[in-house]
């Protein structure tokens, strides 16, 4: 019946959004993927308190990267920092930030500078999915604006800001998290899919600018 079809659809969507990305993160950032970084090399990971962000943090720490991890929830970040520091002997700095806020990207950039870190790898993972029918989303203007501020505006500002720094030094990597919904329309996820399509094109265009300057762009499509 209709209810069961909807339940199966959302079960599939949850698999795509959570289970598959974790497998991708583990494989892409596996210890064998690349050589260990030079000493005192930092990676910045947004949205590190759960899901893909947490798995990427673990994978990079396993390879020897020091980390700056950031998200809105302090508890999970502190627990993750303690785990990674203890298990891999890396330095982990925790910054609480809300990238859906109007000045969220600026505030995070300022906080990272304050702890005297210049990351050579920047993983812009923070994002949120807002799902529902067209009629439902139409009645949630504030939530739509918050999603676009996080998924689009803050990601754009941070990518350009750190892209400028990495280009100036002639090396580094920016990792953007898009989604399979960027290429395939998904029912009840129009605004979210559009935000991830934006990230896809943002990354490809930035790669054209930054690749000749030694900055690698990596895209993940969970």
UniProtKB/TrEMBL annotation:
Entry GO terms, CC: membrane
Protein name: Ketoreductase domain-containing protein
First and last residue of the signal peptide: 1-25
SUPFAM superfamilies: NAD(P)-binding Rossmann-fold domains
Family stated for the protein in its record: Belongs to the short-chain dehydrogenases/reductases (SDR) family.
Domain Ketoreductase, first and last residues per copy: 41-219
Gene3D superfamilies per record: NAD(P)-binding Rossmann-like Domain (3.40.50.720)
Organism this protein belongs to: Octactis speculum
Taxonomic classification: Eukaryota, Sar, Stramenopiles, Ochrophyta, Dictyochophyceae
Annotated GO MF terms: oxidoreductase activity
UniProtKB keywords: Oxidoreductase, Signal
InterPro entries named in the record: KR_dom, NAD(P)-bd_dom_sf, Sc_DH/Rdtase_CS, SDR_fam
Keyword Ligase: no
């Amino acid at each position: 019946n209709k209810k069961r079809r909807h339940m199966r659809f959302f079960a599939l969507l949850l698999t795509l959004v959570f289970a598959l990305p974790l497998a991708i993160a583990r494989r892409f950032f596996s210890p064998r993927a690349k050589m260990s970084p030079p000493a005192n090399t930092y990676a910045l990971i947004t949205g590190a308190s759960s899901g893909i962000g947490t798995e990427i943090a673990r994978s990079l720490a396993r390879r020897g990267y020091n980390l700056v991890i950031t998200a809105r929830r302090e508890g999970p970040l502190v627990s993750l920092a303690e785990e990674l520091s203890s298990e891999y002997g890396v330095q982990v700095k925790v910054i609480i930030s809300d990238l859906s806020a109007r000045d969220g990207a600026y505030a995070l950039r300022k906080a990272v500078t304050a702890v005297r870190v210049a990351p050579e790898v920047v993983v812009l993972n923070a994002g949120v999915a807002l799902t529902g029918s067209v009629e439902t989303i139409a009645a949630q203007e504030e939530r739509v604006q918050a999603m676009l501020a996080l998924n689009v505006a803050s990601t754009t500002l941070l990518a350009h800001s750190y892209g400028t720094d990495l280009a100036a030094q002639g090396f580094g990597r920016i990792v953007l998290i898009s989604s399979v919904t960027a290429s395939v329309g998904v029912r009840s996820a129009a605004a979210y899919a559009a935000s991830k399509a934006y990230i896809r094109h943002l990354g490809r265009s930035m790669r054209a600018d930054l690749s000749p300057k030694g900055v690698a762009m990596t895209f993940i499509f969970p």
